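User: What would this chain look like folded?
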Amino acid sequence: MAQDLSPIETAKFMAARHAAGIVESGMRVGLGTGSTAAWMVRCLAERVKTEGLRMTGVPTSRRTADLAADLGIPLASLDEVKWLDLTIDGADEFDAELNLIKGGGAALLQEKIVATASDRMIVIADAGKEVAQLGAFPLPVEVIPFGWQTTRRLIEEMLVGMDVLGHDCRLRLVGDRPLLTDESNYVIDLHLNRIGKARHLAMLLNQIPGVVENGLFIDICDTVFIGHADGRVMMRDRTGATQAEDRNDLSDLSNIFANPGD
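Assistant: Here's the prediction, encoded as structure tokens.
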């Protein structure tokens, strides 16, 4: 019910519903991963059910695929559709130039592939995800399991010469075991606190043997919809311009979904 949602969840929902509202029939849409993206999937499913929206979703993780399939969204693989009209996804951080940190849900590899195979990428987020400079959120780096400790050591050595404030690199665990991505890789989280030259860092990380991909999304996002708990949605584009969108009615929120999951 609407009154049961926290202000942050309400803000996420508002951004997600606004983004889902711009999807047009016939579109091929990349479906992101995470709590905000889950709201978007549910909003799209509601449009498919009540409006007859015709769309094909390309999920960025098994979690998203399972949720979308359960809700009745037609799905296809990226290889089947070749190219996408739009990808809608969340972010762990975004800056004024719409550079992102993603991968908190360990789906960064598929998320980046799908986003870059799209005409447009829209990020949906609450206002707390906007930062003056990337790096407060740990930067995920997906690595192959073979020799992962060597890969981590190479990353640590590279970071010494970079414009960052921290150098702590931690293997992400689930309990006492390494987390496995959908591609059965590991994730090393870089606790950098501040990233001075994100583009340079992204390039150097991907040159290290064993690194599959990193969570810096540079020049990929086109637009961010920022949701607020009072129903407002703000739009930010790459020029730095902010536009006020219409205030959304909160009264029907409880009629749509009770809990978006994660």
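Residues 258-262 have pLDDT under 50 and may be disordered. If you want, I can go into more detail on any region.
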